[in-house]
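Our platform keeps sequence and structure together, in a single record for each protein. Because each token names a local backbone shape, the row as a whole describes the fold. One such record is reproduced below, unchanged from the form in which we store it:
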Amino acid sequence: MDGYNTATKHNVPFKETEEWEKGHSGEKLIAQLKRGEGYHVIPSYDYSGADDDKAPRLQGERQSHIIPDLDISKDGVRIWIEVKVKKSADYTRKTQQNEHGISRRLYNDYLRVAQITGTEVWLYIIEEDTGDILRVPIDSLAKVKRIYDGPRMDPGGMVFFPQASFEIWKTIKPKKARGNNK
């Protein structure tokens, strides 16, 4: 279940949920790793509305689009990065492969942000079970995406991508299983 539904279902502000904390920690980790590579980072999550409760948006006269989590630059090159933290890739019987997914609404917003700004958007996924940080330019996923139109996972549907479409960027120490104190 996504963060929107979790927070709404329990009348808890999203920023007080475990899911938000996990995602925010992932964003900060990627920002730190990119700074370590010499990038300058604008964390989009620093600009989240007067009450700190809105996703940052690229605003036009008639439309606005949610922007990715990080805006990074180095040596004249600028990149947007969207960070997702997932326990693992999910095996899908329908496609017979491991997949990762994001909200269809966000996927479309990120494609539009790339088009408007002329800046490539990369999707980074931190897999907790393997410790792998996966990445891929989001526009390269168009040919391999699988769309789910139902409302069960997100009100606007979901877009799924084969795990094999991502490259492993880095591997960090995976989280220990609960109850494992070694």
Observations:
- The chain is about 20% helix and 35% strand.
- Residues 1-7, 178-182 have pLDDT under 50 and may be disordered.
- The CA atoms of residues 159 and 180 lie 34 Å apart.
